[in-house]
Amino acid sequence: MISPVLPTYARAPLSFDSFEKGQGPWLETSNGDRYLDMGAGIGVCALGHAHPTLIAALETQGRRLWHTSNLYEIPKQAELAAKIVDNTFADTVFMTNSGTEAIECAVKMVRKHFSHSGMPERVEIITFQGAFHGRSSAGIAASASPKMVDGFGPLLPGFVQVPFADLDAVRAAINDKTAAVMVEHIQGEGGIRVFPCADMRILREICDEKGLLLVIDEIQSGMGRTGKLFSHEWAGITPDIMTIAKGIGGGFPLGACVATENAASGMVAGTHGSTYGGNPLACAVGCAVMTEILSAGFLENVSRLAGHLRQGLESIATTHPKVFDGVRGEGLMLALQCKVPNMDVVHAGYDAKVLMVPAADNVVRLLPPLNMETFEIDDALWRIEEAASALDARL
């Protein structure tokens, strides 16, 4: 018999019913056990659990107004959009509820741009193998990985996949129908694979040369996770369109598609919409998140913590060469490359009361809250060491 909740998730095989509360980087179970959360809801809880500033923002707005729809002006939406525009390349922002919706908006925006410019034949978007752009029809067509598309055909046309970071393949794929290139600077679900900054700069040059739009998916790598507000800043470039989600809401459903005025040309009244996107509750929280991440010293501290965490992980990988093959990633978006099955590492982490997130290419991801203390990072490293030692003892 099917469960009341559609069984599309492989839930963690833990010995309790659920997590009941969280505080900072900690989650507490229904039987009182505490787990150090180094996954942060897959990079969502950028400021940890139950952050007092976010609680205050939500409570204040919740007592005033929850929802009006986008039929009317929403002051908090305008405030959040202004914060994003003031701190990025963007001229305009469309608010969504999720990263998937932000990707949908980006795809529509690319195609509308060229249609509006008198080139309706330019509809193809080049993407990279290993990418993850959500689970909508456009998202799975963009990534085209077998596990996501099997059984869901026919796929939405207009996407061309090339090998990861293969610039020659990008050039070869460009034709009269090409409209854009869409890329994650750091592939999250794809295994924390970093697109080199030098290649990101060349990709920008290719798009400029061929008259293409560059779309950067910062849903997982953005909002301070790499020590910059958005990871593409390390490459010294700007996209034409960018997608944001996860950390921007700190745990409250929120996303955004942001763009230059040129890229957004054609997106006029009636071309796109959302009932809930940019609602007062979400945007109040988003404003609070932005204020915290942009506060003096915050991003510098992310880089400091990232260096400390990476050094500790590299030591663990060196100490346990039968379990791990190294560390990769940037900032607080890191991964341990595993020699044993990555789920064995995740399960050993459960025993050590530390939560890690599996990903492709046999890695476990570490996407902790950005505001952890050094001693909490040390606690996490100790627990990961315990998990690795337990696995070593079985080999």
- CATH fold naming of the largest domain: Aspartate Aminotransferase, domain 2
The amount of helix comes to: 25-40%
Form type: globular
Largest sheet: 7 strands, mixed
> Which band does the percent of strand residues land in?
15-25%
Quaternary status = single chain
- Tell me how many strands there are: 17
> What is the architecture of the largest domain at the second tier of CATH?
3-Layer(aba) Sandwich
Query: Could you state the CATH homologous superfamily of the largest domain?
Result: Type I PLP-dependent aspartate aminotransferase-like (Major domain)
Taking the alpha carbons of the first and last residues, their distance comes to 39 Å
Radius of gyration: 21 Å
CATH class of the largest domain: Alpha Beta
Arithmetic mean of pLDDT = 96
- Elements, N to C (H/E): EEEHHHEHEHHEHEEEHEEEHHEEHEEEH
- By secondary-structure content and strand pairing, the structural class works out as alpha/beta
Instruction: Tell me the domain tally.
Output: 2
Widest sheet: strand ordering: 4-12-11-10-7-5-6
Explain the overall architecture.
- It is a single chain.
- A hairpin with a 5-residue loop joins strand 8 and strand 9 (193-194).
- This protein has helices at 40-43, 52-62, 75-87, 99-116, 137-143, 146-149, 167-173, 197-210, 280-293, 298-319, 342-351, 374-394, and strands at 19-23, 26-29, 34-37, 92-96, 124-128, 159-162, 178-183, 186-187, 193-194, 213-217, 241-244, 255-259, 324-330, 333-338, 354-355, 357-359, 363-366.
- It is α/β, with parallel strands linked by helices and 395 residues long.
- The protein has two domains: 19-43 and 298-394, Aspartate Aminotransferase, domain 1 (Alpha-Beta Complex), CATH 3.90.1150.10; 53-293, 3-Layer(aba) Sandwich (Aspartate Aminotransferase, domain 2), CATH 3.40.640.10.
- The model has no long low-confidence stretch (mean pLDDT 96).
- The two termini are 39 Å apart.
- 37% of the residues lie in helices and 18% in strands.
